[in-house]
Every structure is written in C-alpha cells, then in structure tokens.
C-alpha cells in the first residue's frame, strides 16, 4: 500500500458520521483517485483545495496575508518553531529537511558570533 493511501484511509477512519475531510498538499505523494463509495459508508465529504485558487489575484493574496499576520499578531494563531539551526548550519538544516528528519517548521537563525 502506498503511503498516501495509508494516510488517506486512516483519515477516513477517524471521521465521524457526516464528517468532512480536507486534503491539502501532497507531502506523502500524489493522491490516487478516490472511489466515491469510500465516502458513502459514513456519508462523508471530501475537498482538495489548492492555495492558488484562493490567491488568484494580488489583491486576494494581500488580503489573505494581511488576515494571517493580523491573527498572528493578535494571538489567534501561534507560530510554533520546531527546529532552529544557526545560519552556519544551513547545509545540515537542508539535509534534515531532504531526508525527512523534521516535522513542522525549520528556521535558520543568525549565528550568535555575528
């Protein structure tokens, strides 16, 4: 079973009756076609949004970005930094990302000696 299929089925299994599954991104691979019958078992719904459709114009992009930054500033959203690397270790940070040794955000910070 492909990794995507494993996570997809697990996500469906977690949903309650009339649940709604949102698939965003494809870090575990390109999604396979979904059999509609898999959704009918619990009257589930599924959506697969693409960010570009919500930011199709510069005005829409600026509006969404403004709302995001406002929510961060007001504490509605919290930015969690999972991994910090000094800038001098940027190569190590990239290696960790490429080898899937990280989850969440990875931030490069200025070296203390600079």
Automatic annotation (TrEMBL):
GO terms for cellular component: cytosol. It comes from the Eukaryota. PANTHER family: QUINONE OXIDOREDUCTASE PIG3-RELATED, QUINONE OXIDOREDUCTASE-RELATED. This is Uncharacterized protein. One of its GO terms (molecular function) is mRNA 3'-UTR AU-rich region binding. Keywords: NADP, Oxidoreductase.
């Amino acid at each position: 079973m492909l990794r995507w299929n494993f996570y997809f089925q697990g996500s469906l299994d977690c949903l309650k009756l009339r649940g709604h599954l949102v698939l965003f991104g494809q870090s575990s691979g390109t999604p396979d076609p979904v059999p509609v019958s898999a959704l009918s078992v619990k009257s589930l719904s599924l959506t697969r949004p693409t960010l570009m459709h919500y930011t199709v114009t510069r005005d829409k992009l600026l509006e969404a970005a403004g709302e995001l930054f406002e929510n961060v500033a007001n504490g509605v959203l919290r930015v969690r930094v999972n991994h910090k690397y000094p800038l001098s270790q940027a190569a190590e940070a990239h290696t960790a990302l490429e080898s899937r040794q990280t989850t969440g955000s990875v931030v490069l910070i200025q070296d203390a000696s600079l």
